[in-house]
Each structure stands twice: as structure tokens, then as C-alpha cells.
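3.2 Worked example (two chains)
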Amino acid sequence: MKLIYAEILDLFCWGMETLTRPTLSNLLAGYEEYAHRSGSENLLERLEREELLARQGRGKHAKFSITATGWLRVPQTNPAQGWDRPWDGAWRVLTFDLPVQQRRERKRLWEALRSYKLGLLQGSVWLWPHDLTPMLAQMIQAKGVPECFCGFTARELFLCTDAEVVATAWDWEEITRRQDGYLRHPSAVPRVIQNSKSLAHLAALARSEKQAYDYAFAWDPLLPRSLWPRNYKGALVQTRHQSLRRLLGQQLTRLTGG
């Protein structure tokens, strides 16, 4: 499996904006698919050519830092962007008219709507608490789905509440299962991070943490706080992740003498 650029760039998010060549080489050894390969020099050169990394100095004393373009290539799960976004109290409702015979197109459309984490209220009725226009334009262009939509804004509900809409439109059972799984991670993880003696081991721990964290939020629509369902675990996941991220950065600083 090829080591993707985002995984390398993510190493710069541990609390150190600049990493030396030896540090980067040792960190890359923590990635199983890269540990037994050569060519890190060529890899770093490619990242530099694409202006994702900037280099200072040459040879073993070279230092690398992530560029503004590089930051844009790092897929970061940031729940606060959704949680802290104000809600105006209106639901944006989306319906589509696509014949059952067009199964392939319906499947592609359903997968696209799910990938953007829209809520499925029933049948072909989907909804979102914010403006859908930019999202739809992006989805149609990126996913190649047919333009067969009708959308409208619902500012008043009757026969149900906002809480009931939220509970129905998203799979909170699966979301909770994933977030409970993350929170059940062994309590010894902080101690393991603090006792890590090698950059390769630290990289492996950081990668495992990021994968678990991303998995915990993969289905979560990150709704505004006023729409959170009862017993929502997202905030607990975020608190734990931030704590572990700080420990990873602190241990990286200790191991590199920074």
C-alpha cells in the first residue's frame, strides 16, 4: 500500500512545525508499508517540488516545514467547525425524482448524499440544517450524479420535533457504537506514549490514534450543538483525542531534543 502524501504531512501536526531530515526518516519508519523501502530522499523531493514542504539547508542538516498548500492537503477531522456553526432553525429538505429502473444512477446518488452526511428522513427525502446549494453544486460536479433534485426550506415542523427528526435521519446507533469503541481504548495508552523510546514507535502510535479518531467521526454529521441527540459522545471523543495529541507532540519534542 502506497504511503500517501497526507500521512507524511500529518506528521507536522504533532506540535512541531519543523522537522529535520533524520527525524522525518525515523518517523517514516513507523509506517509499516514504508519501513522497508528506500527512497525517502526522492519522496521528500517530490513533496518539495509540489510545494507541500519547504526545505531549509541541505544534507543531513536540512529542515523541512509544511507550507500553506501542504496544510490544505492534510485531511483533518475538526468537529468544532460543525458543532460551533450557528443554526437558524430551518431545515433544508432535498428530494429527487429518479426512476427505479435507473438503479445505477440511484445508487450513485444515494452514496454521494451519504458521503456528504446528509440525513435520510425517508425514501428519497434528505435533509441538512444549513444551506445545501454549495454542497449540491460540488457533489454534482465531483460525483457525476444527475441533476434531478427539488429542494425547499422548512422553517416550521408539526407532528414531530427537531429532536425526532435528528433521531430518525441519522444512524445514531452506529455513530454511538464507533464513538464508544474509541472511548474504550485502553487507559494505558497515555503511559505507552510517554514511555515511547523511538520515533518509529511514536509514529505508529500516532497513526493508530488518528485512524481510530477518524473512524469514530466517519458517520457523524457534526450537527450544531443545539441539535445534539441525548447521550451524544462526540465531545468526549474530542476531549480524549486532544489529550492524546498533546502527549504525542510532547513526546516528539522530548525524543528530538526540541
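3.2.1 Second chain
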Amino acid sequence: MFQFILKRLFYGFLVLFGVIVIVFFLFNVLPGDPARMMQGQRADIASIESVKKEMGLDRPLYIQFLNYLNDISPISLYDKINTNSSLFLNEQNYKPFVILFKIGQSKVIVLKQPYLRRSYQSQRKVSDILSEAFPLTALLAGASMLFACLVGIGLGILAALKKDTFFDKISLVISVFGMSLPSFFAAILMAWIFAFLLSDITHLSMFGSLYSVDNFGRGEYLDLKNLILPAITLGIRPLAIIMELTRSSFLEVLSQDYIRTARAKGLSLYRIVFRHALKNALNPVISSISGWLASLLAGAVFIEYVFDWKGIGVVMVDGLEKFDFPVVMGTLLFISVILVFINIFVDIIYGVLDPRIRVQ
């Protein structure tokens, strides 16, 4: 099991390194002058050149790439003499790092917090921007996935137990409809129906603020009623896929010999379903849930935009519109880390549930 975990971690590291290489070189060949963006269009040449030197943009591209790796890596090289080798060394109020060991007279290897640099537009740390946006995206993704899992697994089990009945056929229609419904169209449709046509009944507002002030004006609190529509809309597609996977997997498990033996022994339907069939039927469902959870955490851009939900997706699109490359690069790397580690975690759970995976 230990070798299995190490192998998954190694593969995840290779994926992250590939993403870093692609993201860095892709955004460094795009048009746009970061120094001019920071100084404004009326800045003089001397100011622009000074900013380029401070940010290391006057150096060869491969040197910039090595410095970028040194910034974002938790284990970095610190040069006491050449302090311009990486931007995190010149960052004011940067969190202290731990010295691991020394290399020569002036260089040490340190353990630090990854530094994603600063926004060209707002001059804020990218890590601060992401720390504000991610909790909202995590809340939306978690609520959507909870809704999709509870409803999808429940309907899938019922459809499998009532095979070839009217309920089973209706569930298949709902599943196909949910999987084929584009997220941007679903968001607009749900907002139009519930936030406009039925607003007098639902009391929902499509563009309601995420935070509301209490009656005494003492502070803000998260208004959870504005979570209902985006969570349901975001959970439609994973719900349809989870329901169909649960149904097909349950039908396969219910046809196994040990299930027929359990029925022949007179066990109740409840014990057969929840004690014997459910665990073995959930393996493909867990893989699907992990993939969708990682995808939802990465940010449902259309859902967040339509419902004015200030999550990671909105941050990334806003950065693209303003050519704010550090924000976009930091967001993509953050999303990649989420995807990789969730997939590794699910692979480990999958290996625990099914020993054949560890052997393979």
C-alpha cells in the first residue's frame, strides 16, 4: 500500500510540473507588457525599465522560469548575496521560512510558503486574492456535490430496484436530459424561472448579495438563500451522471451469485442493499464523485458569473480580461493542485475498497 501511495504522489508531481511548464511559457509568449500595466500608459521608459529589473523581466526566459519555480516551490534556494534571484526574497512582510541546510557560504535551502507573486492591477498578493475567493467556491461546490450525491445515489438505487418500471424509464430520461444540459444554459434558465418568473413565491434574487447586514447593523453574515439556485444548477449534471452510474453498477452487483445467495437465505431487502450490495456498487460512483468535485472546486465559471458568485472562476476570467497574468497563472496552478490531490486521495480510497487496484 505504501508503494501504491508513493507511485500516485510521483505521478501527481509529474502532472503538476507539466502544468507549471505549460502555464509559464504560454503566458510569457502572450502580448502585453507587465511593467507598463503596473506603471500605467503614461509611465516613462526609465520607470518601466526599473520595474522590469525589479521583477526580473529583463533576464532570459529560462532564468525567469527557474526563478518562478523557486518562488512557487515550498522548498527553495535562498541566496544571501544575490537577493534578486527570486521575487519572494524581496517581498515585504513575507512569512518567515525555515532553513533546512546550507550550500556553501551564501546559499541555503529553505522551507517556505509558495509565493504566487502579485497582481499587476491591484498589487495584491495572488495568494490573498485566492484565499478570499476559494471559500465561496468550496461552499458552492460542496453544497452542489452534497445535493447531487444524496439525490443521485438515492434515485439510482430506486431505479435499479424498480428496473423496467415507469420510474426507471423516467429516471433514464432525466439522466440523459441532465447530462446534455449545458451549464450556462441551465444557469440562465434556472435564474429566469425562479428568480424572475417565480420571485414572488420563492423570494429569491438572482443578483442578491452573498452577504447581508443583520437587523442591528452590527456586521455581515452569509445569506444562504442565495446559495440555493447556484448549488442546484451546478449539481444537475453530476446528479444525472451519479444516478446513471449508481443504477448500472447496482444492477451489475444485484446479478452476482452472493446476492442471490443472500436472497435465498431470506435476508431482508434492506440488509441486501445496504450491507452487501452498496459497498461493492459504489466504486465507480466514488471515482465519478471525485472527478466532479475537483471540477466544481476548480470553479464553475458560468454559474458563478450568472449568479454573481465571487469565486475562483470569476477571479480567473477577470484576470484574463485585464491581462493580469500572475492572477491567472496562480489560479490555474491552484486549480491543478486541487485536481491532482483529490484524484490521488480518491485513488487511495479506491485502492482500500478494491485490493485489485493496489495489485495492478
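3.3 Remarks
Residues 206-219 have pLDDT under 50 and may be disordered.
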